[in-house]
Protein 1
Amino acid sequence: RPDSQISVSLLPFGRRQQVLLARDTSHVTRLEQMRRDFVANVSHELRTPLTVIHGYLELLDPEDAPALAPVLGEMRAQSRRMGQIVEDLLTLSRLETQHHVEDERVPMAPLLATLRKEAEALSQGRHQVTVEADTDLDLLGSPKDLHSALSNLVSNAVRYTPAGGSIAIRWRRSAEGATYSVSDTGYGIPASHLSRLTERFYRVSSSRSRGTGGTGLGLSIVKHVLNLHQARLGIESEPGRGSTFSCHFAPERLLSATRSRDES
Ligand code: ADP
């Protein structure tokens, strides 16, 4: 067929021979497209009714019926959570269909300051938050998407680190470019889970994750944003000791803070 996608592989066969295997994979691509469209459509359709429900819940005054105040509080929290899941699903749908980003300079000094403030606001004094930068390089890419990815790692570090722990946000030059990393002294992740963490809704412990208010889509979004910026996610973790999530950016994505893209 004209729209066929053929995947070709060469497999060893016996000692001296090889087999050429050609497969039509267009049905897989079509099914994947249907899945993406379905998720995007459902999320889009859920957005409006959820906004209406949330709006009405906000209008209700708990003082009118004090006995119902805890129920109202829980309903508001859950409708907010559903709204966040829908927004994250829509973000993922957009990232999955996007092939490149509109490049802009993303100044790192103010971004690191914002990330520190976000960590402190979420932690509410329960953790020690530090920021270290040994380079003044800026990033090149989508400011909104990069902020959301880097901020996701910070909020995970806060959410999966018990009170009294520390969070270190780092921006460093490396042999292959520059690395942004977030280290925590939190619960850590058993090695057997590491390769699946960026799957949608994959969680090491469902009860702990739901309790901390995440949507289960954060690391999926991080991975897609990094892919769009040709960057790589590294995860190191030791249960009971903590984790480090690193984003490795190649030189093509880096700009000297004082010079423009053309000059650097
Ligand atoms: P969630 O909303 O559940 O946090 P994420 O996609 O951000 O979803 O993360 C997926 C899972 O990875 C989490 O549920 C948690 O089990 C684990 N995880 C992510 N970040 C950390 C971290 N810093 N420390 C320990 N576990 C983490």
Protein 2
Amino acid sequence: MNKYIKAFSEDHVGVIQLDRPNVLNALNREMVTEIVSQLQSFENNEDIRVIVIRGNELAFAAGADIDEMRDASPLDLELLNPFAEWDKISLIKKPILAAVNGFALGGGFELALHCDVILAAEDAKFGFPEVKLGVLPGAGGTQFLTKAMGTRKALEWIWLGEQMTANEALKYGVINRVVAKELVVEETMRLAFQLVEQPPISLRLIKEAVYAARDLPLQEGKNLERKNFYLAFASEDQKEGMQAFIDKRPPTFKGR
Ligand code: CO8
């Protein structure tokens, strides 16, 4: 039974709602474990094709739980290895969309950056305030933000620890879309339902290839894309997609 999140599904979309409203969804370790376990459960559920992570109206998540971290020693952290849990998010092959209302700060911003697509409310606030706590992002923030906006801008934001508006985040290529705050969840679900109609094997092969473009040298990325292209021809959905084109009818994809 989850204590800090709610999980449900709607028409092949698995939804994780962060639910620790009294502390703006601050992420303690147990909550991160619940999120990751639920992601894995959706990943293993054939009925789920797309995953959405959302918060509430005030916050996606205002960071890691400062109370929990405050007295940690370096050895506690080394032995707890808290970020190993976060690494598991990057192993999820289904599309993960983030719907951000309110604050996405510190670990909350990092959770959004672990998602493939980010939609945000006009008044959403992103940022890494860790510098003001005498630390720095630890769950991949320096890496994700730099890959998204480039070295100079990332340094400026992370050094100053200031909050970025949704429009600034959009301008720097950190998020996908800005929408009216009352429509964030609706728009994210709409995008999720569009993805549900796409062939799931293609979606996962595309996800792997696009991250290869971010993380690998060009030729290695091209080689991986090529192998994934060949692999797509093992699927029934490739046969269906091409046959439907020839038959001039819409395809029905099965995920096989
Ligand atoms: N941790 C614990 N409690 C929090 C956190 C947090 N990150 N954020 C908010 N809260 C609590 C507040 O203490 C407050 O509790 P209470 O009502 O009991 O006093 C409640 O949430 C509401 O917050 P505020 O009263 O402060 O609300 P405001 O609207 O005035 O301010 C802010 C909202 C600006 C978001 C403010 O709460 C704030 O600055 N929060 C902290 C933001 C922050 O520094 N985040 C970074 C944390 S460090 C981090 O994320 C490192 C990531 C590495 C991953 C670590 C994995 C182990």
